[in-house]
Please model this.
Amino acid sequence: MIYKQEINKPYEEVFSKVEEACKNNKFGVMKVYEFDKILEEKGFPISRKIATFEICQPKYASLILEKKPILASFMPCRIAIEKLDDNTTLLSTVLPNEIINVCDANDVKDIANEVEDTIRNIIKEITGE
Model:
């Protein structure tokens, strides 16, 4: 269910590329959650850097919400990054077709395919593949 891509690039470099890769693929970054910083501020520090980027393409969002409003609980799309060590970062996301399959939402499968292709392109751009 979770698509993962481990890359040999430092976390900070990967973090700095996410927004531009999204923009290049006509997605916007709505919010970034830097969990290591958030949890440390709350008194519950964690041992590694982890962030999640909420990303969205309004055209796709409106089409999906018009056809299948129940999918709002899975929106926006997210890309997470995790620092594994000084030179290794993990990118992960739940691909739209996995959500479509779980929610029996085949009536938006064509849109999910387009979104999934774009998310894979974003991750390829970040990883340099």
Notes: The first helix runs from residue 11 to 24. Helices lie at 11-24, 35-41, 58-67, 96-103, 109-127. The radius of gyration is 15 Å.
